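Reopening this one. Same input as before:
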Amino acid sequence: QVQLLESGGGLVQAGGSLRLSCAASGRIFSDLGMGWFRQAPWKEREFVAAIISSGGSTYYADSVKGRFTISRDNDNNTVYLQMNSLKPEDTAVYYCAASRFLIYSGSHSATDFGSWGQGTQVTVSS
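Same output, byte for byte:
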């Protein structure tokens, strides 16, 4: 089990940027794929981005490609989500998640992630 704590959310105008951070503790962070999901009011939780344990491959939802960048620092047990050109439809609670299995190959399914943070609110005003 790994413990996750997100930070960096807030209120930003459309077109602005935010950087989310997720600090991990517990199980060896560098063994796990990491992902970001989000959930807007009255909507299902959806995949945003993910990165394999080495950081060598990244995956994105079509809605954020070209605007968001996921990265990780295995020395400091942290994963980041840089969000640029934010839109009002990006408003949601953003969750950090760790892959359930040691081998993560890019799944967008929340069921393939076994540990979750408490979430951080991102609000984009128009």
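So the earlier flakiness isn't reproducible anymore. For the record, The chain has a mean pLDDT of 95.
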